[in-house]
Amino acid sequence: MLLAVAGGLATDTAFPNRSWWPMAYVGVALLVLALRRDSVPWAWLTGLAWGLGFFLPHLYWADEAVGEPIGWIALSVAEAALVGVFAAAWVLVRRVPLLERRTWLQPLAVAVLWVAVEQLRARWPFGGFPWGNLAFSQTDAPLVRLASIGSTVLVSGAVVVIGAVLAGALVRLRHLQVGAASALLLVVAALVFAPWLVPLGTRAEAGTLRVGAVQGNVPQQGAEAGSQARAVTENHAAGTAALLERVEPGGLDLVLWPESAADIDPRTDAGVAAVVQGAARTVGAPILLGTQRYVDAPGGQGPRTRYNELILWEPDGPTDLVYTKQHPVPFGEYMPHRDFFRQFTSAVDLITVDMAAGTEMSLMPVPVERLGRDVPIAVGICFEVAYDELIRESVVAGGELIVIPTNNASFGMTQESTQQLAMSRFRAVEHGRAVVQVSTVGVSGIVSPNGVFQDTTGLFTAEQMVEALPLRTTLTVSDRLGQWPALLTGLLAAAAVVAGVMTSSRRARDARRRASVRRRPGGGGRGAGRPTAPVSRGGSRAGARTGSSARGARTGSPARGGRSRR
Description:
This protein has helices at residues 2-12, 23-34, 40-58, 61-66, 69-93, 97-101, 106-121, 147-174, 178-193, 229-242, 270-283, 338-342, 388-396, 416-431, 477-481, 484-519, 542-546, 550-555, 562-565, and strands spanning 208-215, 254-256, 287-295, 305-314, 317-324, 363-368, 373-379, 401-406, 435-439, 445-447, 453-456, 463-470. It has 566 residues and is α/β, with parallel strands linked by helices. The two termini are 45 Å apart.
């Protein structure tokens, strides 16, 4: 248990803000070592302990956002329980004779099971929660280059393989098998640094887009910042005017504002519309900005609904170009089963109006006058950056640039914003696209297609970024493969678990049979000529090696006859 908790804590340090990426391998190695006991229930508890050691510090920002620890603890326990599922599955699967005989396959089997559970976490329950995928810890490591080949499936899998091989090296060191341990450590080094050989494209293939990103900040830190929506919009308008210190009017193709930069919808509020319109005219460029749209129930019967949207506002007025967030955050933007969860905490009513999901692809064709065409931009609002399929489908559909508008004001000075920026950086490498993450309060950043930061901002500051970004059309191997790596991994994991269950059932039947034989009376009867004692876990009996039988036991000499020796 202590090994497991230590492994979880170590793994968290691989993520921002520390970003000690080798610790992900150490954390996995400690978990593998902690799972050496051959007990499925104990394995689940051990995996739960590792998960709590990891998720409680990793998701601490959830406590900051809610203001009560119950949400943070419940989320951490739910995610940790799924790590327990992985651990229990591994103990089952390693009983399969193929893995018992060929131990070199075991790191691959561990990786398949881990990735399958990560993919399950990303989809279930309530649409999933991919936060904490091991792949997102590797944005400073050579392994991130594998994202262009196999997305989070391949990168997380590589982390686990390295961790499992490292665990084997530690076991051999403990037994003073220096030669074998050294060989395994060389394998670890090769697996870690070989991805440097994977090429990454960065050149512009369809021109460049001159972009300004505005982080306007909020008047006051904390969740209550939403009540100061007009001031937030004015801050972003002021930040847009500040761009003119770096460019001439009309020198930008597009200005990016974050999610919730205009929480009061400028399409329905004349005052906010005037602020946005003035900013667009001042800078001489269209503004892509986040807002909220509220819809009343038909006939006024029933609760209101809101939509989290990204809209384009030209210098001469609003356009019809809109993207509606497809993946609202459960318990953060809408409350599932509100009446049920109210029995445990009144915090469910902090969400007064539930957010509904959009249905259109996250691709926005933005007209760019200088280029004389529409530039398709793949977008993902806030937490949507964590979901593989959502960003991938818009890139495959033609997205030449990725934009992630977000609002991190509710998370205070925690590591949430830097964890999110690491995901944006991962997406840049995965899809070979420049990425802009722009936040109300930070941390914002512009990332080149090979994952290198071109510019970043601080947290709770008012800053601006200006860059000419390459527009790219080439699809990576990861984009072309789509969901096939995840599907294949899931099928392999399911087949392995079924094989593990069958092996365990067979061994249990053999054990019951041997126990029954041992309890059988030694003298006479129909069972007198049959073997009486087991000699190995594989189910062979003493009679198979000695030829002894009930009659032989009485006479003190080996029994004779084909039946007793069978």
